Amino acid sequence: MIRLPSLTALIVVDVQRAFDEWEAAGKRRNNPDAVARIAYLLKAFRASGAPIFHIRHEGTRPTSSFLPTSSGHKVKDEAREAPGEPVIIKRVNSAFIGTDLESRLRAAGITTLVICGATTNHCVETTTRMAGNLGFDTDLVRDATWTFDRLGPDGDAHSAEAIHAMTLSNLNDEFARIVTTDEVVAMLATA
User: Fold this and answer.
1) Is residue 59 classed as helix, strand or coil in its secondary structure?
2) Pairing with 53, which of 8, 31, 47, 100 sits 20 to 30 Å away (CA)?
3) Whole-Å CA distances, 15 to 72, 87, 107
4) What is the pTM for the complete model shown?
5) pLDDT digits (tens, 9 = 90+) for 156-183
6) Are 82 and 89 in contact (CB under 8 A)?
7) What does the pLDDT look like over 137-156, one tens digit per residue?
């Protein structure tokens, strides 16, 4: 289906330096090209004139990597907002809770969301689930998001690749369509 760019918004979730710091500290992630794919999406959305919303996480716990006074709170250069692109600050996993994101989208007549960012199984997943539940036509860009290895509650090691794949499987066709950057850019080019 061809969608008009004016009715489609890019939602860029938490592309912040804290994740670089996690990697530098030894946490392993998947999808090393995700930030480059996000930069490509930003370029395509800007060229098409479609709206872009930047989401930033602001930590509230004293040990958070995302405290507003910490270096981790800063956005990565590749995902920096352009003049006029709104930046919405959230303090929980969903970009819709405690923010005016939904009202901004509704006021602009936006019906379709394209979601990318970090991390797949936390803020991206929560935002995507809520977007679907709120009735937005939602696309999650599989190659423009990433996550980290984690230990499960029983001490089992789960790879970032497995977590990423399971999250996409859980969201697919229930809350969102799972798409690639190239599919999104092609949609923008033909709209």
Assistant:
1) coil
2) 31
3) 10, 12, 25
4) 0.96
5) 999 999 999 999 999 999 999 999 999 9
6) no
7) 999 999 999 999 999 999 99
DSSP single-letter state for residue 100: S
Distance CA 27, CA 157 (A): 13
Residue 122: predicted pLDDT:
97
Question: Do 121 and 148 form a contact (C-beta atoms < 8 A)?
Answer: no
Burial of 12 (0-12, 13-18, 19+ CB in 10 A): buried
* Number of residues that this document lists for the chain: 191
Total count of domains within the chain: 1
Q: Which residues of the chain register pLDDT less than 50?
A: none
Q: Which domain holds residue 72?
A: 5-190
Half-sphere exposure of 155 (CA within 13 A, CB side): 0
For 63, 69, 97, the CA distances from 146, given in Å and listed in that order, are 22, 25, 22
CATH number, position 97: 3.40.50.850
Beta-sheet strand order (sheet of 87-90): 87-90, 52-57, 8-13, 112-118, 137-146, 177-179
CA distance 29 to 24: 11
